[in-house]
Amino acid sequence: MYAMAFLRTALESPSEFVFEKEDFDGDDMLGVDDLRQVIDRLTAPQRLSETDMQRLLQCLLEEADLDDDGALSFAEFEHIIEKSSDFSGTFRLRL
Ligand SMILES: [Ca+2]
Q: Where is the EF-hand domain (predicted)?
């Protein structure tokens, strides 16, 4: 649930989050390293502890990684955003 709210917040800030821009290694997938950088930026100036970061990454992938390849394709990303559209977009750090 938290992970979905997080993604929703990311989507509602299009200037902050552009899929292609977040794909740091250019493989058309948001892998764990890409997601890590996104999370780091969205949670700045707070820094998540490594434990919280791992938990959030795990939640994100559990919710969004439909084919279990450990990375989010654009389609998977869109899907999770649609799924999360019922939730409040308010981002609160509650780890
Ligand atoms: Ca995937």
A: 52-87
